[in-house]
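Structure representation.

___
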Amino acid sequence: MYSTEESLSTAHTTFVTEGPLAVLTFNRPEARNAMTWDMYRALVDACDHVDREDAARVFILRGAGGKAFVAGTDIAQFESFRGADEGFTYEQRLDEVLARLERVQKPTIAQIQGVAAGGGCAIALTCDLRVATPESTLGIPIARTLGNCLSGATCGRLLDLAGPAVVKDLLFTGRFIDAAEAHALGLLSRVAPAEQIERTVRELAMEIASNAPLTIRATKEMLRRLMAKRRLEEGADRDVIAMCYSSADFREGVASFLAKRKPQWTGR
């Protein structure tokens, strides 16, 4: 039986443990679990706790409500952006969160039910493994919605998983892919019906938890180091981030998203 860790649970996240399993639930279903900065901080705190606890062998991330894993960052937080500096700060903060998740010493599993969009898709793809229901979809639709861009670190993780042709297809079109396509592309480890996903994830996690923890830790860290060597040096993406976040198109993207209308792109 899972026990709730009251000190690590927040208004919109719940952290529970059961034996070797630690589970963080993004619990804001009325907003499709869109991430606030408090929720991002809760994710970092959970990562720190999992690394401190020897009993924790596998870390599971999931969304509440069954309709979304995480539908990205709460767009209302972008309304105050006025130029490149805010864009740099946002991407740096998000990079720090994702880098912390990537460095968790224990295996991480994203349990995906519903949409994993934008920052939510990035969180799922930063996890070591992903299990989704057939109805789930994954995508980063910023070319259709906000007109911003991904950081070099996030692009690097996508390249590691899917290769340049697939990444360009997904980001140029802004389309979502279903679980079947994601599984075929190697982005998902398992696909399980909604009524079985909890059991499927738990069985996978317990199988991993029964194996040699130091072997798993060494394997995970070795692969992380090898992939990190192929990524941009810090700050090498500043010019493209500035181009997008200081643009009229980005301001139009945020305004149109919040107004629920189609954006009018100008390329400026």
User: Anything to note?
Assistant: DSSP finds ten helices and eleven strands in the chain.
